[in-house]
Amino acid sequence: MIKFYWNTAPNPAKVALCLEEMGLPYEIVPIDTRKGDQHKPEFLAINPNAKVPAIVDDGETIFDSNAILLYLAEKTGKFLPAKASDRGPLLSWLMFVASGIGPYSGQSVHFRNFAPEPKEYAVNRYTFEAQRHWGILEARLGKQQWMVGDAYGIVDMAVWGWSRLIPFVLGPDAPKQFPSLQRHLAEIGARPAAVKALALKDNYTFKTEMDEAARVAMFPHLAKKVA
Fold first, then answer.
1. Is the separation of the CB atoms in 54 and 62 below 8 Å?
2. 84-190 sits in which CATH class?
3. What residues have CB less than 8 Å from 178, skipping those under 6 apart?
4. pLDDT tens for each residue of 173-192
5. Strand, helix or coil at 198?
6. What are the extents of the domains in the chain?
7. Is the pLDDT of residue 61 over 70?
8. d(CA 16, CA 58)
């Protein structure tokens, strides 16, 4: 059985969706980042980058959410494009989510909601870049139903992990700017696997207080001044 190191953040959510879509049995290992579980030696042995998600599958360890999606798709042969000519677009868009959507959205969330003042420059930069990246996906989904080819696949799962959080990333009115993304989000959200993936949170309790210990656990630079 797959061990799935998980919490309720966007990147673990996309892997939960993938596991549910593929019908793979898995065991949840909750990682409470506000308590610092990600820095414990036993988790660092799984992912030295101290981030979720990660999985262990029959002794094979894989971390980074998009790497996990690709690994599971290749393992099962599911949710990959039917046409060989779509392999390149699959990799391109999967890496676009990994290198652009996730990082810029995450930084936008951080500077909007958690960083101390002064932060105007950082908020402007990361809001602009997050909005620009989401605009690229909006244009793509304005031309076709799914991200790659003509069928739902792992790139759609990768997008869904973050698109649910657009109001938190860009502000409460932001979804109005992205009607095609909202259509895409609704279509995936109606799938039974998405309902099950989101329901995982009902079975676990995570720390909600953003006290000083949580801030240091989530943002280790606060505890150490870098030269």
1. yes
2. mainly alpha
3. 134, 135, 137, 138, 166
4. 999 999 999 999 999 999 99
5. helix
6. 2-78+196-223, 84-190
7. yes
8. 18
Q: Which one is the CATH code of 2-78+196-223: 3.40.5.10, 1.10.10.10, 3.40.50.150, 3.40.30.10?
A: 3.40.30.10
212: region left, alpha or beta (phi > 0 left; psi from -120 to 50 alpha): alpha
Cα gap 84→224, rounded to integer Å: 48
Domains 2-78+196-223 and 84-190 are alike in CATH topology: no
pLDDT score of 217: 94
Residue 116 pLDDT: 85
**Cβ within 8 Å of residue 68, ≥6 positions away:** 15, 18, 53, 54, 55, 62
> Could you read off the pLDDT of 141-171 as tens digits, one per residue?
999 999 999 999 999 999 999 999 999 999 9
